[in-house]
Design a protein that fits this description.
Strand order of the largest sheet: 3-4-5
Low-confidence stretches: 62-71
Order of helices and strands: EEEEE
Shape: globular
Number of strands: 5
Radius of gyration: 15 Å
Length: 71
């Protein structure tokens, strides 16, 4: 299913939230990440609206190293 959620974990440190997928993301595939509006800060303040991010891992380079770009 193209809309299936990607399993993984979220960590938070130094005001940065980081999502780590449980398995590698597929190359040349666009992924959409959503931070829901009901997420709150430490003081309990909710965000005004959901935020969406798009990410598409690029294909492997000749050395076998992957690269990515946000867009």
């Amino acid at each position: 299913d193209d809309d299936a959620p990607v399993q993984g974990t979220v960590s938070y440190a130094d005001k940065v939230a980081r999502f780590t997928p449980a398995s590698p993301l597929a190359y040349s595939t666009q992924y959409t990440a959503t931070v829901a509006a009901d997420v709150t800060d430490l003081a309990g303040n909710a965000m005004a609206a959901s935020i969406f991010f798009y990410h598409a891992p690029c294909s492997r380079t000749r050395s076998g190293q992957g690269s990515s770009s946000n867009g």
